[in-house]
Amino acid sequence: MIPGSFSYHRPASVADAVKLLSDLGEEARPLAGGHSLVPMMKLRLATPAHLVDLHGIAALKGISRNGNNLIIGAMTTQHELLASDEVAKAMPILHEAALLIADPQVRYRGTIGGNVANGDPGNDMPALMMTLEATYRLEGPGGTRDVAAADFYQGAYFTALEPGEILTSVSVPVPAAGHGYAYEKLKRKVGDYATAAAAVVLTMSGGKVVTCAIGLTNVHETPLLAIDAAKAVIGTSLDAATLKKAAAAASAIMAPAADARGPVEYRKHVGGIMVTRALQRAAAIAK
Amino acid sequence: MNDLTPTREQRSAALEGMGCKRKRVEDIRFTQGKGNYVDDVKLPGMLHGDFVRSPHPHARVKKIDDSEALKVPGVLAVITAETLKTVNLAWMPTLAGDVQMVLADGKVLFQNQEVAFVVATDRYAADDGINKVIVEYEPLPPLVDPFKSMDKDAPVLREDLAGKTSGAHGPRKHHNHIFEWSVGDKELTDAAFKKAEVTIKEMISYHRTHPSPLETCQCVCSFDKIKGELTIYGTFQAPHVIRTVVSLIAKLPEQKIHVIAPDIGGGFGNKVGAYPGYICAAVASIVTGKPVKWVEDRIENLTATSFARDYHMTTEIAASKDGKVTGLRVHVLADHGAFDACADPSKWPAGFFNIVTGSYDFPTAHLAVDGVYTNKAPGGVAYRCSFRVTEAAYCIERAMDILAQKLNMDPAELRLKNFIKPEQFPYHSALGWEYDSGDYHTAMRKMMETTGYAALRKEQAEKRAAFKRGETREIMGLGVSFFTEIVGAGPSKNCDILGIAMFDSCEIRMHPTGAGIARMGTKSQGQGHETTWAQIIATEIGIPADNIMVEEGNTDTAPYGLGTYGSRSTPVAGAAIAMAARKIKAKAQMIAAYKLEVHEDDLEFDIDGFRVKGLPEKFMSMKDICWAAYNSVPPGMEPGLEAVSYYDPPNMTYPFGAYLCVMDIDVDTGVYKVRRFYALDDCGTRINPMIIEGQVHGGLTEAFAIAMGQEIRYDDTGNVVTGSFMDFFMPTAVETPHWETDFTVTPSPHHPIGAKGVGESPNVGGVPAFSNAVNDAFSFLGSTHIQMPHDFWRNWRAAKDLGAVA
């Protein structure tokens, strides 16, 4: 549990960070909150020769409103996200989900950018961002580009990030007023990854679902959008048969690993239940 | 006397003696981060050691190449079994009479076994070094399942034992067999089963788990070549035993070994044994002439130092139709891992598992235990319990519930019907123990009344009906547990460790100003000894607890003791304190008689001094007596006021308790909620109720963890898959239920202050309460026994197997 030696860099601008990462190549890793990278380094499963610490870049911090979007700087911590009235009002599901991430000590240090950019299927924010139709801004030696969260994840720890690129901010469209939302996460204990979790954002009219998006955490090597499950509930009043259908459709795309959280069958089963419960709770608070 | 003269109550309260909720004096430093732990020890020129460990559970070690490692800047030496052989330390004796490799000698027998020890100038260089040691292995088939260990074609694990048909505890019947230990009357028991009206039989497993103290195992060894002296700072629960063991195996004179256990961050049995890290650090210090520190990380602690439990108990009870037990038959298959490093008193290969008759009046019983080797880490320590007592309590408490279910009787009623009656104490159990005291019926009834047991059963019946009607997906379980512990090892007639009787000791030295120091053979790891030991002295001799300093852990200054584990400190050392204090008091009485010019028989002790009987004004305080002890003792008496006591207990003590767990389980997810947990403990005389409450909270939390998910699990190929707190269930305050505590007081008749010990009762009684609650919840769906741990997915699987989930 002792890391190998490495060089430490603390650039003051995104441009400097990008330059460092491009120049140093694969031997360099950007450091945000460090909750994933540092333990991997202590186990020597990651042995970067260079760490490029992003904490010195003021431009990567903060939450601002741009038209109908909330722009969240990549180095904004989960704690800062929780402290934001804007987030709590405009997209309460983010607030709710951030509270389910580990414990206060972790949230003081853990960042939004690190959470979504690492490609760890156990992280909660990626499925949330897909559900909310967020876009990630990536800055690299080739310039700046925006990638939809839904297109970002390619495999466990594999993302659309190109060498030298840094995820600098997340842009999240504000959901419709009166939308219903819920993030249902089954975990064994505080600090654990989800056994299965489901995010739901929906709108209702006259007791029927008008729009719906469903995201799934930790039931596949990437976060998932349960598109068929979401389709199945549109136009319904979420009666028992519909819920069952939606849960089955969601379970059908799950491919979790068997681990101490349970065998595959269990994780898929409770994944379906998380979908059901999230739908019910979201519907109950939709106006 | 005037208004300012303190009343008797005020004088008594000022002592903060026994029964006082005295605040823990050690917490002043602990809560400010000012404790002094082994890793805080930094000696000039100190080096650091770290282990190369085996990735294989079973393999031949073909070659160890350290040439690249030795090129790493800062790396000074790589120690292997070959190095250790030059000082005859490649193997070490275990507490259980087996031998254990210090470093892999030709073979590795469990994953993460120590293979080589890299010594470097700092911790980072040491770790760089271990990554450069190249070890060539030839993998061998691993043996993981203890039930297959004695198969004909099972791989031979211990080649060093080839041809040895007997071990430390008698004959071996297979190359992977360690011992068979049996006790009780087999014929009589078999006969009881033959004529029994009702019998039950169940294989009850208590899975492998780990004590996982907050602070891992560690040491600093410093060898002084000029003086030939070895100083060892270590996380030791039994520092004197370590000194003797080191002296015997390293052939160093015992007076030249100084063992110091500073503050310890939890032990729970994990820090009783001797580990390769200690030996390697000592050898490295002798070789380099510099102090060497070894500190385990969490993965090493969980996967290589002593585990607990791993008992597979086939249990049978014979009974009459109306629920009177007539016989108990238990066979245990005990998985000891690769070496038998079980920490038990030497004559007890299965500890005190023969307490398995529990709180019940079994006319006859028979027990047999087979210990076997597997490719897993060695250990088998008493994780917050007396030796194998938790396993025994789980076994009988689960079995009594199974019997109650078969008889269609309430589990509490079945227990009440079979309890040993108050008038039967001292009670001789069918498996050989003499229970000192108990009033089980009172404790059980108090539990039932306080919790509203009857109403809870009624609610459960209603919920079950609602579940069957499809109105709820939640089931409710009531977990009853009534345990009897056996602690306070132990009487020299039957308890020793490597030939040293399991007494304990106290030395009290009073200073002229009415203050004093007590030095102990025990070693607190968080139990609060500095607080409670002073309280015993305060009550015994009338000096405020605040004036008594308690010192433990330095073998040069402390009297010889066998250490702290198995809830033995209060039963044994607590008695030694009282006996030493009484010696002080006896001398104080002679001094007081001389000063007050009366015969000592005319004096009576009165809270904080001696008073002349019938003449209340003629009084001499203990404080004044302390002063007098240093200037005006009676002619012929030696000055000073100190005493030492070595206490050999006449018997064990037998704490008991009645617990109830109320649990709700969502069958669709297997998620449980502990709605209520009530724990009534009878630990005899209560020294510090606040510390007792804290001990009960801690022990229940560990019991909760074990029953509901905490396991050391190996996959089929021998990989340990629970090597960190991501996978090994360590509950936080969020998951931990609310605890309700209660008590009755049945003093031990043979203990000087009547105390029995409490630290481990809640773990012993807690585990069956949780497991019985889960099993009780599912029983109406047709199950008789569901194995621990009861984590969410296993609860769901149980529901699914019983047809409650589609």
TrEMBL record, chain A:
Keyword annotations from UniProtKB, A to Z: FAD, Flavoprotein, Oxidoreductase
InterPro entries: CO_DH_flav_C (IPR005107), CO_DH_flav_C_dom_sf (IPR036683), Diverse_Substr_Oxidored (IPR051312), FAD-bd_PCMH (IPR016166), FAD-bd_PCMH-like_sf (IPR036318), FAD-bd_PCMH_sub1 (IPR016167), FAD-bd_PCMH_sub2 (IPR016169), Mopterin_DH_FAD-bd (IPR002346)
Species this chain originates from: Bradyrhizobium zhengyangense
GO molecular-function term, one example from the UniProt record: oxidoreductase activity
Name the UniProt record assigns to this protein: Xanthine dehydrogenase family protein subunit M
PROSITE patterns tied to this protein: FAD_PCMH
Domain FAD-binding PCMH-type: 1-177
Record-linked PANTHER family: XANTHINE DEHYDROGENASE SUBUNIT C-RELATED (PTHR42659)
TrEMBL record, chain B:
Domain Aldehyde oxidase/xanthine dehydrogenase a/b hammerhead: 32-141
Main EC class the enzyme belongs to: oxidoreductase
InterPro entries, sorted: Ald_Oxase/Xan_DH_a/b, Ald_Oxase/Xan_DH_a/b_sf, Ald_Oxase/xanthine_DH-like, AldOxase/xan_DH_MoCoBD1, AldOxase/xan_DH_MoCoBD2, AldOxase/xan_DH_Mopterin-bd_sf, CO_Mo_DH_lsu
Listed EC numbers: 1.2.5.3
Gene Ontology molecular-function annotations: anaerobic carbon-monoxide dehydrogenase activity; carbon-monoxide oxygenase activity; copper ion binding; iron ion binding; molybdenum ion binding
Keyword match DNA damage: no
Keyword tags: Copper, Metal-binding, Molybdenum, Oxidoreductase
Cofactor: Mo-molybdopterin cytosine dinucleotide; Cu(+)
Catalytic activity: CO + a quinone + H2O = a quinol + CO2
Cited function: Catalyzes the oxidation of carbon monoxide to carbon dioxide.
Quaternary context: Dimer of heterotrimers. Each heterotrimer consists of a large, a medium and a small subunit.
Protein known as: Carbon monoxide dehydrogenase large chain
Species per Swiss-Prot/TrEMBL record: Bradyrhizobium zhengyangense
